[in-house]
Amino acid sequence: MSQADEARVDALVDELISEHPPQGTDNVEFWGAQYDKGLAWVWHPEGFGGLGLARKYQRRINSAIENAGGTTENRYLNLLGIAMGAGVLDAHATDEQKTRWLRPMFTTEEIWCQLFSEPGAGSDVAGLSSRAVRDGDEWVVNGQKVWTTLAHISKWGMVVTRTDAEAPKHHGLTYFIVDMEAEGVDVRPLYQITGEAEFNEVFFNDVRIPDANRIDAVGAGWRVALTTLMNERVAIGGNTVPRSSGQIGQALEVWKSSNSNDAVLRDQLLHLWAETEAARLTANRANEMASAGIPGPEGSTGKLAWANLNKEIAAFTVDMMGLEGTTYPDGYELTRPESFERHGPQKSFLRTRANSIEGGTSEIMLNILGERVLGLPGEPRVDKDLPWSEVPRG
Amino acid sequence: MAEAPTVSYAPTEELDLIRSTARQYLDDQFDSETVREFMMSDDGFDRSAWKELAGMGWLGLLVGEAHGGAGLSPTEMGVLMEEMGRSVMPGPFFASAVLATCLINEVAEDGEAADLLESLASGEIIGTVAAYETPRGWNLDDVATAATGDARVSGKKRYVLDAHMADLILVLADTGGGVGLYAVSPGDRGVTVEQVPALDPTRRIGKVRLDNVSARRIGSGDSTDAIERAIALGSALLANEQVGGCAAAMEMSVDYAKTRYQFGRPIGSYQSIKHRCANMLLKLEHAKSAAYHAVRVTDDEIEFSIAAPLAASVASEAYTWVAGENIQVHGGIGFTWEHDAHLYLKRAKASSLTLGSPQFQRHLLGEALEI
C-alpha cells in the first residue's frame, strides 16, 4: 500500500467534503463533484471518474464520505449501472462512450438496467434470439427480454442481441446500450411469488439503436456479456458485510424476541450463524487475496454460499415464528417497488427462493467452480460448433 | 455484540517457508506406506521418528525460546498442523506438542514447569492430557477426578490421546475449588494405562486409572479459565489440521474424477460428480477461513472465544462431509482397505469429537455470542 496514494486520496476526499459539505449539498451535485475528482470508481483512469489507483482505496473513500455525513446510496439507487455497467464501459467502451455515460450514471440522473435473459435463454444465455439487423448507421432490434430489474425507471439498458444467426451461438452476438425511452421499447411489470414486481418484461419492436451505441466489435457481444456477469457475481457474492447482519441478523432478532430457550432451535440457529460467519470470513479473505481487482471465478463461491444460506436461514426464521409464520403482513397487493428494501421474514422466505436462480443459477455456479477452479472436464456440448440457426430449441 | 476485528490472512514469507519445508518433509517421510506401517504397529509411532521431529524443531514450536523452543505463534503452528493433516500424520504430535504444551503454557506460573517444557521441546518426553471421563464430558464442570490438598489424585480418565506412549500425563482434576492441572508419570505408583482400540488408528487413545497418585500440581487456585483457553487453542489448531485433511480428500476426488472414465467420459464431466466436488471446495474454503481466522485472533480474548468454537464446528463438519463424499466419488475402490480414503474419514470423524462435538462447540459459540 503506497502512502503517497493514500495521502492523495485523503486530500481529494477532504477537498470534496469542504467544497461540497454533504449536509448543504444536493446529492446529485455531490456525486457529480465526487466523479469529477476521480473518487467515483477510483480504479478507472483519470477523466472517467477515477485516479488509476488500486480498487481497495474505494472503501477508504466511501467510509470517509459516510463519516462526513455524505451518502453512497447512489450505489443502490443505480446498482446495475454503478456495480456492473461501469465495469463494462471501463473494459470495453470508447472514450467518447465513457464520457457520455459514466457521469450521469454515477449521479443517478440516468438509471441503468441489464437485458440479457429471454424466455428461451436462461442459464444458456448465449443461446438468446433477440435479433439486431444493421441498417446504415443504425441497428434495428426485435425480441423479448425478461427479468429486467428497474427497466421501468431506466434511461439506458445493456442489451445483448444476435447479429449473426449462422455463426455458432457465442460468436454471433453483439452488445449495445439501448435508450429505454426509444420508440418500440415496451416495458411491462412481471409479478413474482412475493406479490411484487421488482422485474419487468421488455419487448423490442423495431427499436432503432445508433451504431455509436455499440460496445466493442460486432460479434464480440459474448465477451462483453461475460465481463458484465463477472461483475454481477462479485457484486452479489463479494460484498463484505458486518457480522450478524442481513438474513442471519433477522433470524437473531426473531430468536431474541421469541425469548425461547429451545435447544434444538438454538443449535440450528448457531449452525446457520457459524456457516454465515465462515462465508463472511471467506469473502474478506478473497477480497484481500484478489490482486489487481479483476473479478474471477473465485467470486462464484460467495454467490453460491449466500444463495444457499439466505434460503436456509429465511426458511428457518419462519419456523422459529411458529404459527405467526403463516401470516403475510404485507398481503399480496401486486405492487411495483422502486428500490431494494428489507423484507419481513415471511416475504424473505419467498424472495430468497430467487437467490439461487438470479444472476446465475446455483447449478451454473457449481459448473463454474468445478470447471474453472477445479479443472474438471466440461459436459459434451452438442451445440458448440453448430450455427445458432440449427441448434434445437424449445 | 462486539464488532469483528479486521484480520490479514495473506501468507507471509515465513509461513510459506514453514509450509514448503513441512510439505517436503512429510511427503518424503510420511508417505502413505509409512503412515500405514505406523497405523498397523502396536504403538502407532516410534521414538526414533519422534526424535526426528524434535530435530526439525517442530516439538518446541510453541515452547518459548527460554525453554529451548522456537517461541512461535499459533499462526505458524496452524500451517504445520494443516500440512500434517494432509498426510494424516500418525503419532502423538498433537497430544504432546500442541495440547500438553498449550496447557503448561497457559496454566504454569512464572517459570514453573520449565523443566517439562524443555523436555517436551527436546523430544526427551512425550506428553498428553487426561481430560475427560465420560463420552460427552467435554464441559470442565463434569470433571470428577479428584485432587486433595497435598496433590493426591484419584479417578478414571478415558479417551486420553496416545496415553500408551506418554511419559507425562497432565491430569485435569477437581480441586474442590475449580479445576487444577496435575502432572503424573505412567510409572508413578497407582497409575495404570491401557490402550483402547481407536476408530482412527493413526491417533491412539487409552484409559488412565489413577489411584491416590502423588502428583505435581502446575498452577494454583482455580485454573479452569486457563485450561479452557488451552483447550480452545487446541481446538483452533486441530481445525487447521482438519483443513489440511479436507483439502487432501477433496484433491483425491478431483484427481480421480478427471481420470476415471465411465460411459466413455471422465466421471468429473457429469454434474452429479462435478457439483459434489464443487461443494467440497465451498466447504473447504469456509473451513479454511474459520480456521485461519481463529489462530490469528488468539490474543483478542472476546474474539477468540467466538473464533475457536466457530473454527472447530465448521472445520469438523466440513472435513467429515468431504471425507465421506470422497469415498462416494471413488465408488467401490474408495471402500477398500487398500485405498487411502478411509484414513481421512477416520481422522475426520475422530477429530470432530476429540475436544468437543460440533454441537458442543456450537454451545460454546452460543455462550460467547450470548445466544
Please supply descriptive tags for the structure shown above:
heterodimer, A: 394 residues, alpha+beta, Butyryl-Coa Dehydrogenase, subunit A, domain 1, Butyryl-CoA Dehydrogenase, subunit A, domain 3, 3 domains, 4-stranded mixed β-sheet, 4-stranded antiparallel β-sheet, 12 helices, 8 strands, 42% helix, globular, B: alpha+beta, Butyryl-CoA Dehydrogenase, subunit A, domain 2, 10 strands
Task: Write up what this structure looks like.
- The complex is a heterodimer of chains A (394) and B (371).
- By secondary structure, chain A is of the alpha+beta class.
- Chain A has three domains: 3-106, Orthogonal Bundle (Butyryl-Coa Dehydrogenase, subunit A, domain 1), CATH 1.10.540; 112-219, Butyryl-CoA Dehydrogenase, subunit A, domain 2; 226-373, Butyryl-CoA Dehydrogenase, subunit A, domain 3, CATH 1.20.140.10.
- Chain A has helices spanning 3-19, 27-36, 57-67, 74-77, 79-92, 95-106, 221-237, 246-258, 263-289, 299-321, 345-351, 362-373; strands at residues 112-115, 131-135, 138-146, 156-162, 173-179, 185-190, 199-210, 214-215.
- A four-stranded mixed beta sheet of chain A has the order 1-4-5-8.
- In chain A, a hairpin with an 8-residue loop joins strand 6 (185-190) and strand 7 (199-210).
- The longest helix of chain A is centred in the last third of the chain and has 27 residues, at 263-289.
- The model of chain A has no long low-confidence stretch (mean pLDDT 91).
- Chain B has three domains: 13-122, Acyl-CoA dehydrogenase/oxidase, N-terminal domain (Butyryl-Coa Dehydrogenase, subunit A, domain 1); 127-222, Butyryl-CoA Dehydrogenase, subunit A, domain 2 (Beta Barrel); 225-369, Butyryl-CoA Dehydrogenase, subunit A, domain 3, CATH 1.20.140.10.
- Chain B has helices spanning 13-29, 32-40, 47-55, 74-86, 93-107, 114-122, 224-259, 271-296, 301-330, 341-354, 358-369, and strands spanning 127-130, 146-147, 152-161, 168-174, 179-184, 191-196, 205-214, 216-218, 261-262, 265-266.
- In chain B, strand 2 (146-147) and strand 3 form a beta hairpin.
- The A-B interface holds A 242-244, 252, 255, 266-267, 269-271, 273-275, 277-282, 284-285, 288-289, 301, 304-305, 363, 365-367, 369-371, 373-380 and B 1, 3-4, 6-10, 254, 257-258, 265-266, 268-271, 273-275, 277-279, 281-282, 285-290, 292-293, 310, 313-314, 359, 362-363, 365-366, 369, 371.
